[in-house]
Amino acid sequence: MWNNDKCLELDRQLCFPMYAASKEIVRKYTPLLEPLGLTYTQYIVMLVLWEEEVVTMRDLGDRLYLDSGTLTPLLDKLETKRLIKRSRNEDDERTLDIALTKKGIALKEEARKIPKKIGRCLRLSPREAYELSTILKKILKRTSM
After folding, report:
1. What is the DSSP string of 27-84?
2. Per residue in 32-74, pLDDT tens?
3. Residue 88: beta bridge partners?
4. Domains of the chain: which residue ranges?
5. What is the pTM assigned to this prediction?
6. Which of 54, 81, 113, 114 is positioned for an S-S bond with 99, CB 3.0–4.6 A?
7. Helix (H) or strand (E) run with residue 21 in it
8. What CA–CA distance (Å, rounded) separates 117 from 119?
9. Per CATH, is 15-143 categorized as 1.10.10.10?
10. Angle at 74 between CA 28 and CA 17, to 5 degrees
């Protein structure tokens, strides 16, 4: 089955619809995040912090599948906007803690509207959204081992 040229057709590639869908979803987020002054990647950093309040740089990178080279400029921008603060961990100087500022905590209230608005854009039933999320998480888990 895979020994012919059909295996190289774009419509047979699993990666392409995932890539294209991801790009389009992020594009839908852009106008919704603009009033918050956030890019999509800044938004996902804030999501983790709104959930955890304080997180280490390492744990944040692991959670978002981002390396420190990608994460550092994101955190620089969020710190410039006074949404987060970075500090050395009291117990281990090698560990960098990231925490929300009061301004970062306050932004959470404005962000509460975003998931519902994105849900309307995607037009998936709750069951479809759950199933898709489950499959994507399974792929992430298996490919990041």
Report:
1. HHHHHHHGGGT--HHHHHHHHHHHHHSEEEHHHHHHHHT--HHHHHHHHHHHHHTTSE
2. 999 999 999 999 999 999 999 899 999 999 999 999 999 999 9
3. 96
4. 15-143
5. 0.89
6. 54
7. helix 15-33
8. 5
9. yes
10. 35
